[in-house]
Amino acid sequence: MRSPVWLVVLLPLVTAACATTSVAYHPQKDCEAGSPDACADWADQLAGRGETLQAEAAHGQGCQGGLISSCITEGRFLIQRGELEAAELPLRKAYLEELPETHEALADLYQARGTPEDLRVASGLRFEAPAIDKPATEFIYSFRMDSRGFPGAALSFNVQPMAFLSRRLSLGFHMALGAGPTELNGFVGYQHFASSWTVLYARALLGHVPGAPPGEGLNYGGELGLKLCLGPLGHLDFAVGSSRFSPLHASVGLGLNGLFLLLFAMR
After folding, report:
1. pLDDT tens digits for 121-160?
2. DSSP notation for 117-130
3. Quick one: pLDDT at residue 18?
């Protein structure tokens, strides 16, 4: 019988605390006090009322406080008003964060300028945008099932720096084991960024099978796959493939940023 009594006592206190917290938050005043997040909230309210110049100024305060989303929005407001030179400062600040949306925003500025050189730069930024936040190296573990129903596994190390056509080209090492003879392969691949989080890829494999009779261990094959990207962390991997020593198989895997794993191993 005690629990309902405590609930009767505590419920008004909790309600009052929540109400106090809700009343205490005032986007305009908190923005003026130096809160970048409050400035973004205040800007959204102003934009919703059609007060775009005031919303632009509020996002400018948020950008000065280091809020990248406000830098992008301020820049786009300025582009809409034709203030292209003024838009470059917040968009350049956002660009330093190396995120897909920051590259796209700066590309909008160059697109608006419209000279042949500016359009070339805009095209380059859009080409880089979906790949910019992806890791340069990845370790991938995959579980495989072949067409005979036999399970297996694969370990891969993938190298995909921006220098390789903004991560469109990749190369690495691949080891398959479990369902048949162990394979040691190298690979080269091409990746198509359908979006910043969806990547289609194809790989050609060439390697050998340790312990095979001389002249009979040459291995070759290919793989088609789909990555669901997790930004700089890595990706989820789904693929189908086949090789001389592995029948047709499907796999699901997890790829992790090689730098993260290296730092973890050094601890």
Report:
1. 999 999 999 999 999 999 999 999 999 999 999 999 999 9
2. HHHHHHHHHHHHGG
3. 53
Conformation bin of residue 190: beta by default, left when phi > 0, alpha when psi is -120 to 50: beta
pLDDT higher than threshold 60 for residue 49: yes
Cα separation of 219 and 77, whole Å?
Answer: 57
Q: Token pair of 249, please?
A: 């198989």
Residue that has been written with the tokens 């009594």 in this structure:
5
pTM to 2 decimal places: 0.84
Q: Which two tokens stand for residue 54?
A: 């005031």
Confidence of residue 11 (pLDDT cuts 50, 70, 90): low
**Dihedral sign, CA of 233, 237, 243, 249?**
positive
β-strands 183-193, 169-177 pairing: antiparallel
Q: How many CB atoms lie within 10 A of CB 123?
A: 13
**Strand (E) or helix (H) holding 171:** strand 169-177
SS3 content of the chain, % helix, strand, coil (to 5): 45, 30, 25
Tell me which residue has tokens 């590259």. Answer: 103
Query: DSSP 3-state assignment of 95?
Result: helix
Mean pLDDT of the chain: 91
List the alpha helices (DSSP H) in 96-217: 100-113, 116-128
